[in-house]
Amino acid sequence: MWLKKYKFTILILIVCAIFTVIIYFKARINASYFVFLPGYRSGVSIEQIDNEELKSFFKIIQKFNDGSQFVVVLHHPEGFLSPQVLSRAVELQERLSNLSYMKNVLSVVNYSFKRPYFDGSRLDASILDDPEANSFVSKDGKYMLLYCTLSVNCDEDKALQEIEKILSDFRDLKAMPFGQLIINKHLFREILRQVFVYPAIIFLVILFIFYLQTRSLKASLVSLVIPILANVIVYGVVSLLGVELNTMSVMCVSFLIIIGSAYGLHFYNGVVRFKERVRKEMFTPIFFSMFTTCVGFLSFLFVEITAFRHLGLMVCSGLALVFVILFSSGYELLRSEKPIKRGTLLLRLKSESLGRIMLVFSLLLVALTFLLLPRIEVGMDQADYFSKSSVVGQAMTVLAEKFSYREPVYVMVEKQSIFTVKDSQQIAKLIEDLRRIDGVSSVQFPTAYPIPTLVLMSRLQPAIHHFVADGRTIRIVVNLTEEGYRKAGEMKDRLREVLEEYPDYTFTVASAAFVVDQINSRIVASQVQSLTVSLLLIFGSVLFAFRNILLSLLIVVPVVLTALSNFFFMGLFGLKLDVATSIVASILVGLVVDYSIHLAHDMRRTKDVFVSIENISMPVLANGLGLIGGFLVLNFSRLALFRNVSLLLILGIGFGVAFTLFSQPILIKNFAKNDVKQETTRKLS
Question: Which one, of 640, 659, 639, 642, lies nearest residue 593 by Cα?
Fold first, then answer.
């Protein structure tokens, strides 16, 4: 008997069990920022991406046979002019160099300066005055850098584990690694937390909020378990298709739990009110709530960044699954639930004074938004995702303050014939020209010897091979300041202007900074595209549902104001418009319209907007508090990436709920009273 009674529930559990096994064996994670590049596809190697910046980047890497690169920041209060302190740094460099997968470690002790500063035991103090040494030792001598290059195709995870173990033996030098490889490692760990740790906490927080509202543990659990089942199916399909999780798509786990659980709450509210008729009565409002939310995420399909599209498709398919599971399995589990009035929080909200205050505040917010827009900085910077107290944050601070260093630019110089002594003079002049560019902190290339001599030396000294590939190819390393990094596009133009003055050579210029700049250049366009499309689609959906232009316009008023409030809060708190925060406005648009839809749908029955507010206030407020509580958990993330998104969503949802409950009834009463009376005589088609 119970098999027939719970047939959909059993079927869904079997499907989820199968997909759980698939996830365990086939799920993959990619923490690289390359996933935000237009043209990136899961399962395709980075080298195959059709992108000129990446092609230049990998052309140099392949020519010099380099693996991943990173820098180790060393610090000692006595300074590295002390023989004892320097000996510890030399010991660390030797241990790193002896690792089988370490191709090269470059520092003051093995770099070929114009004059020797290291005699085997101590550094000459005059090194602090040499501009060429600026990228190796700080002006006060208390900080030192080791530039590390791994071998090609080595096991980077294993390499990092051994490197971290070695660095832990030199705590007196406060060794801190920094580089894209290190950032990816920390992002990978945070992605795992986003999949397993934060969703569990979100589950408990929303369960507590829902239980306070319903006093039904079963209804609260079912509302939360259904999105988890949908998550399993979505990630199972994604894994089966070979699509990788990244720092963007991983948010789908939390989004589905936070957003999808609200549908269960509305469904339970329908069970209490309509009993066996719940599916008929609640199908339309929940479907359009799901559909309009999906529209916000589907707008990401019009963005050329693949990671955006993956997140949009995953959340949309997950919410659709939540809807299907809710009206099949959810109905089986909740249809016999009886209303529990004792101890529940029943709300009666009718405060026109508060609504008018909210309207005035909203008009002020709109005006201030346009004033704050110029303050919003545009650009992705993965280092900014980490707190200042983290290893990445501390290393970044030292590099910026002590070395004016942020990111290297590699200038590969090629000549059709062999480099000569005369070429060495030209290259020396080129290096001086590069040093004078505003935004360049230092330039690395050993000009102490003629290039033909360096070619011979490179066969025996790995440090020289970092700059010399063969007799026809050399590499100059141009280190950018923090300001230069943030204006990488301009820096690239300045570098090319200098290089064009040397027509005898062929240049390839590449940097991770240029790749990031290319991503940043598309952020504003992506924001405008996704937000415009989501607003148009949502208005079209609402108009189709209610067949009334004026009422539809009033329904989307909170949506538009909430989208504007997102930029107001960004400017107010000094948050950047980056690949993460650029998705918030479209998400808010899809979420906040749900409340207006439930209000308008209930008005068809009551013919009184304030009576409808009393009817929907409890599920809407519980929904809003559940969303806020869920996103509040992400605010405790170790990454500013997720904290910023969380903060904006919390503020936007709070604004949207308050406006819908207090101000929107006033707008409908004053501007659409006759329209509502006419429309309530019709059924929703």
Answer: 659
